[in-house]
Specification:
Length: about 375
Amino acid sequence: MVVNKPPMGWNSWNTFGTNINEQIIFETVDALVEKGYKDAGYEYVVIDDCWMARERDENGDLTANPEKFPHGMKYVGDYIHSKGMKFGIYSSASPLTCQGYPASYGHEYRDAKKFAEWGVDYLKYDLCHFPGKADYRNAYLTMGMALRASGRDILYALCPIGIGEPEKWSRAVGGHMYRSTVDIFDSFESLKDNAQKQFYKTHYSAPGCFNDIDMLIVGMHGKGLVADVYGLNGCTDEEYRMHFAFWCMFGSPLMIGCDVRNVDDYCRDTLLNRELIAIDQDAEARPLYFDERARFHDDNKIGFMKMLENNKIVLGYFNFSESKAAINVYFEDFGIAAESGFGLELTDVMTGENIGKKFDAYCPTLEAHSFRIFKAEFCKR
Ligand code: GLA
């Protein structure tokens, strides 16, 4: 199965955690279709941890939790498919899932076969509770093989939570995406941490297998699963938009984590922004470019360049710092030397505003926790 673009969809974990059920999933599917998400490219509906019964059935198979999914998982998959979307499910490379439910370690071929029977199109495969002495790389490979043997195309989303340099082996074990980070939480600090830790690893992400910097928190506004425990207040709408813009510049999979039945208009517009989604889904799928040796390089006030198909370019300016600041971008650091005679004519992708022809450098001042992304066309001096 070839996956050429970062997968897009929705995942139950960030908002619902363990409190999932058939009704929530069905209402979410309906909202994804009716509110424009499906049309914008969101495709997979992924039911995360806690969908299964506490014990395997008498045959040794994973089976649906009878209270949450009384009609079984095939029924859920059929509903998702009937709405033109794809069915994602969750298990783990360990004996137990992160929440202590039975998982697939030692049962890979049996479980992959069952997933295929249920019509599963996507498997998120976690790593919590992995036995210390066991070989998790081999465990991921075993499920990769089991999926191939299952007779169905199932997108394999590894979730090794950044452990063991997954960028180096996920592609080889059959993965189509790999979680390179710890869990995201609904706060600016958390999204910043996930983003910055992966700046330097963007080049491992490419068609076939994408670096997944975790699900989106856009639109959660503190209503997520751990809000009670950690007292998270969420982010501002602008911070959520910056988060989405960075994920798109990075080319991460885009898995919505909020309650799409009730999201506010601003965040819905963010998640449906076609310009940003097009950057994420660009056919060339090139990594971000920046040079940490550049004169004024600063991870907190950083400019990126990304090449897109049809010889297009975008520049992304991100102020992750706590104060208003200039973002210093010198075009020679992006390969446009002064002697070339070329400058860049910039158009803000969020507002459509043409901000004119710039030569040698463009260093706008950005508010704290804000961003700008520009389409850039070559222009002559
Ligand atoms: C891990 C993963 C999360 C989620 C939970 C479920 O923490 O990283 O994305 O799947 O497990 O328990």
